[in-house]
Design a protein that fits this description.
Layout: E1 6-11, H1 14-25, E2 31-32, E3 36-40, E4 46-51, E5 67-71, H2 75-87, E6 91-99, E7 102-108, E8 114-120
Parallel strand pairs: 1-4, 5-8
Antiparallel strand pairs: 2-3, 3-4, 6-7, 7-8
């Protein structure tokens, strides 16, 4: 089976988005240019930020068509991350709430990509 290990988000300014994600994730990119920024995260997962103005072939949509999901270690960590991100000025679409899969909230990055933070309920997939 092939396992996805890389997500690319199309952004207006990779350098500005790179600074946003460096602060949010607490790590520096491994690659950075005016058109592309890449982070290598835990277990080798990669997050790329590609200029929506230079991606080939051209992208049909920008932010909001999916979610970057970040798992945390507890329900309290969901709430703490929400407080932190709210304090940073992120637009919060959904305040912390309990859903059928666990505790979660949703915020937007500067390009309107949805960022979901969650802690799964015991027995839930995640």
């Amino acid at each position: 089976m092939t396992t996805p290990n890389f997500v690319i988000l199309y952004v207006d300014s990779p350098e500005k988005s790179g600074a946003f994600y460096a602060s949010l994730l607490g790590c520096e990119p491994v690659e950075s240019s005016p058109t592309f920024v890449m982070f290598v995260l835990d277990k080798g997962f990669k997050l790329g930020l590609w200029s929506r103005h230079t991606v080939e072939p051209a992208a049909a949509v920008a932010g909001g068509g999916g979610e970057l999901v970040l798992a945390v270690e507890s329900a309290a960590a969901v709430d703490a991350t929400h407080i932190d991100w709210s304090g940073r000025g992120l637009n919060i679409l959904q305040a912390p709430t309990d859903l059928d899969f666990g505790r979660t909230f949703v915020a937007l990055d500067p390009d309107n990509h949805r960022l979901r933070v969650y802690w799964p309920l015991e027995g839930a997939q995640g």
